[in-house]
Amino acid sequence: MKIIPILIISSVSFLSYAKPQMPEVLVNHDDVIWGFDFLKDGRIIFTERSGKLFVVDPKTKKEIAITGLPKVYAVGQGGLLDVRVHPSNGFIYLTYSEPVGEKATTAFARAKLQDNKLVEFKKLFSAHEPNDNDIHFGSRIEFDGKGHIFVTVGDRDNRERAQDLKYHQGKILRFNEDGTVPKDNPFASTKDAKPEIWSMGHRSPQGLAMNPETKELWEAEMGPRGGDEINLIKKGANYGWPVVTTGREYYGPKIGEGSTKTGMENPVEHWVPSISPSAMTFWNKDIYLATLSGQHLHRLEMKDNKVIKQEELYKNLDWRFRNVRPGPDGKLYFSTDEGKLGRISQ
Questions:
Q1: Is 163 helix (H, G, I), strand (E, B) or coil?
Q2: How many Cα neighbours within 13 Å face the side chain of 18?
Q3: pTM for the predicted model, two decimal places
Q4: Which of 9, 168, 183, 195 has a 20 to 30 A CA-CA distance from 293?
Q5: How far from 280 is each of 11, 57, 211, 322, CA to CA, in Å?
Q6: DSSP state, 331?
Q7: Residues near 273 by beta carbon (within 8 Å), at least 6 away in sequence
Q8: Strand order in 197-200's β-sheet?
Q9: What is the pLDDT of residues 31-77, one digit of tens each?
Q10: Are 302 and 308 a contacting pair, CB within 8 Å?
């Protein structure tokens, strides 16, 4: 009798996670879909950088255009940027590039959605001070679940202002939900400092996410040629730009004083060459970054706030991923500069 060996395979996966499936595209537009979030009824509200706002039903893929929007500075990297739905107070929060004469700045506003129109619209904040550059407006919005809202503002290509507390440029800001300034902000009592500032030394912060388990605030930002980074954000901390960076000028020379300096925070992770992180989120305990020049979703497996594994997903699609966020259905949603809004199952 011939004995046939039997190979027994354990049910435990050799992988630490299940790889996401291929994306399902829900929306195809002709413009950058910069921000999106989820309404209580399950529909998705999303921005086009040109200044338009839409709501789509992910079940039927039926879209509705929303009216009542502010005028935006849709030039270069400017336009209608992030949109977030507050989980309890009924307000829709927006960031956008606000025209100020022939200049522009980053603005923050809120409104309510009623009959396909924004009502009770109120601008809560305009960053000081406007300039005529058309890059690095920011701007992401995140809630802390304790009555506060964080908003990122880029350096607007005025690098030195990222280190100057008299300006909002190159900062993460913290507000109360009505747009007022919390009294416990780190520079609220500092002479000549802008009281909204929570952290400083940021270049182009387009990723912002609260870890749902630890309630720690994380940020992702683009460097110049190299120097992209993710940071664990601390109250009142300085993240170095442009004094310290691992990036270089686009024409080659080094920037600043090196890659580290006493009194300035080191990134948790950085990338040379650039991948251009434009958004970040937490999904199934991992960090996911949307990347522009990298043209992929970047998965970071974390342990004790350190990166232990990295993976590039969907690079073969050649999409510039602009935003990424988990949905209420447990799927991972994304948007692209090619005008796609979609989702991924796992």
A1: helix
A2: 9
A3: 0.94
A4: 168
A5: 32, 24, 11, 10
A6: P
A7: 225, 226
A8: 141-143, 148-153, 171-176, 197-200
A9: 999 999 999 999 999 999 999 999 999 999 999 999 999 999 999 99
A10: yes
Upstream peptide bond of 139 is cis (omega within 30 degrees of 0): yes
First vs last Cα of the chain: how many Å apart?
A: 45
pLDDT tens digits along 287-309: 999 999 999 999 999 999 999 99
Residue type, 186: P
33-38: strand order across its sheet? 33-38, 44-48, 52-56, 63-66
Length of the chain: 346
For the chain, the farthest-separated pair of C-alpha atoms sits apart, in whole angstroms, at 92
Active site residue 148: no
Looking at per-residue pLDDT, the higher value among 147 and 11 belongs to: 147
Which residues in 177-259 belong to E strands, given as ranges?
197-200, 204-210, 217-222, 228-232
Residue recorded with tokens 């009505």: 178
CB neighbour list of residue 120: distance below 8 Å, 6 or more residues apart: 111, 112
Tokens of 45: 């509200």
Closest by CA to 346, choosing from 276, 288, 269, is 288
